Amino acid sequence: MSVSDEELDEYPDGSVKLRNPHIELMDQDILYHLALGSGSHDLVEMFRDVKFVCMGGTPRRMEMFAYYIMKEIGYKLPTGTTLMDISQYSYRYSMFKVGPVLSISHGMGTPSIGILLHETIKLMYHSKAKDPIFFRLGTCGGLGVEPGTVVISDDAIDGLGNHSYSVPILGKVVQRPCKFDKKLTRELKALADPEDPYETTLGTTMCADDFYEGQGRCDGAFCDYSEADKLEYLEGLMKSGVKNIEMESVPFAALTNHAGIKAAVICVALLNRLKGDQVCTPKEVLNEYQLRPQILVARYIKKYLQTKGRLSSFEGHGSICVKSPRRFKLVQQESQTFE
Ligand SMILES: O=P(O)(O)O[C@@H]1C[C@H](O)[C@@H](CO)O1
Ligand SMILES: O=c1cc[nH]c(=O)[nH]1
């Protein structure tokens, strides 16, 4: 039996329920693109304490985020070890775990993040994690905002303006609504510091299936419209409330909502698309921009852990996946549950 919307609301213990009756009938579930499996790994032992699942495009960004959040929440690596990429043998995605935080790269575009969301939602189910919150820490093109502005998505639309994720399933298009948790987006916005040297704003995010023509750029290999057509289109989007354009928010909002998981998308604008198409900002500046969504999410995670009395209490506690000089190991020490 599949789980309905009403039934999803009825699981007060916070565990993730799957809307797929087949999974529990299977002997084991291989999470192929994560290089993990319910038969080959003790997923409960490895991931039960996960509370925050943070995703972003590149392996490098998500590894850096893992080290950054480790510092922010006061986690210490055992001497002589580095963080381990748990999914390294998938050669697809990278995954790092620091106590209650999972940091995973999702690649580019809706098919890539869609596959990762299926497997990560199942991972949360198998591991019996409670009420995990999902974040996407991304980059985007802004509409009428200064480069470096942080945009928290309060809605997501596809390239045709649909507020839903359309997937052809068994030859028919199935539409799943895009919904973000309003309280979570409000809480994130409230964590923007007036002293931050950049704006943090809420807005609708357009999720394109392409970086070039799909986002109305004139600098792709092909272009059959004029600069004036492009500007008319982008200004129309802006007037309808669209603040930024990226490539993953629609499946992120729709699949987390379908699974009953709270989620938010926070992206930094690399450029103002009303002023150009090419990303010509220097690399060092782009690297600093990428930190901005991470800073906001770190504030949220720290505040959450503080409320639970868990901040800076990680030395010698919790779980961490580390690469020691000679072998990989999951260090499990008195694992904690975050509820
Ligand atoms: O999280 P990232 O920075 O990868 O998000 C955007 C959307 C596409 O994946 C990519 C295009 O450059 O950047
Ligand atoms: O313009 C941009 C910049 C980053 N990512 C996008 O998808 N678009």
TrEMBL record:
Read off the Pfam families from this record.
Answer: PNP_UDP_1
Q: Record's InterPro entries?
A: Nucleoside_phosphorylase_d, Nucleoside_phosphorylase_sf, Uridine_phosphorylase_euk
Q: GO CC: one term?
A: cytosol
The alphabetized list of GO BP terms reads: nucleotide catabolic process; uridine catabolic process
Enumerate the GO terms in the molecular function aspect. uridine phosphorylase activity
> Domain named Nucleoside phosphorylase: which ranges?
51-302
Give residues annotated as binding phosphate: 92, 136-139
Q: Where does substrate bind?
A: 215, 217
Q: Which family does it belong to?
A: Belongs to the PNP/UDP phosphorylase family.
Q: What is this protein called?
A: Uridine phosphorylase 1 isoform X2
In its UniProt entry, the species of origin is given as Sitophilus oryzae (Rice weevil)
